[in-house]
Amino acid sequence: MFLMRIFFGIAYFVVLIFEILKATMDVALRTLNGNIDPVVVEIETVLKRPVSQTILANSITLTPGTLSIDLDSDRQVIKVASIVPRKKEDIIPFESYIKGMLE
Amino acid sequence: MMWDLITLIRSTILIIASILVILTAIGIIRFKDDRKKVLYARIHILGIADVACILALLVLYEPLLAVTYFILVPFASHAIANAYYYGEEKHD
Questions:
Q1: Partner-chain contact B26 A63, CB within 8 Å
Q2: Domain residue limits, chain B
Q3: Which one of A59, A69, A71 makes the best mutation probe of the B interface by having the most chain B beta carbons within 10 Å?
Q4: By residue range, what is the domain housing residue A75?
Q5: A64 contacts B62 by C-beta, under 8 angstroms
C-alpha cells in the first residue's frame, strides 16, 4: 500500500520532531544539573534493508542525548552511546514508523 | 503594526535559541576530563547547539539551509564518535 507508506512517513517526521524537542529539553536540564553517565550500549533492530537502518541511525544521532557509533548491517545491531542508561524503547521510539515506511 | 504576532513568535524562538547556545557553552566548559567517557557527553551537549541553529535558521527565513543542516548534522557527530571508539589510543 503506497498511501500507507506516505502516512507512515508523515507520522515518522512528526514523531521525530517531537522527540528532538523533548530530548533537547532533557539534555539542557542535565547540563544544568550535572547528572550525566555516558554509556555505550548495543541495541538490536528489526529493520532489514540498509536504507532503513541508515535512516534509523541518522535519527538516533539527530536526537540529542543518543549517538550512533557503529552499524552492523548483517547482525542488525547498532552501537549507541547514550547520556544516561535507558531502555531500548526510549532510544528508538520511531522504529515502527520506519518499518511501516520503508520495509 | 510593529508588534504583530509573527514578529513576537520569531523573537521568542530566537531568544530560546540563544539560551540554548549559552547552555551548550556552559556544558562544554563544565564537564572536565576526569569523568569517564566524557567525549560522548560533550557530543551530546553539542547536539543542543545543532537544534538551536536549525531553529534560528528556520525563523530567519532560510528553510533550505535549515533542511541541509538537518540532513548533514548526524554525519559529523557520527564520524567523531566512530573515530574515538575505534581509535589507536587506549581509553576506557
A1: no
A2: 2-85
A3: A69
A4: 2-102
A5: no
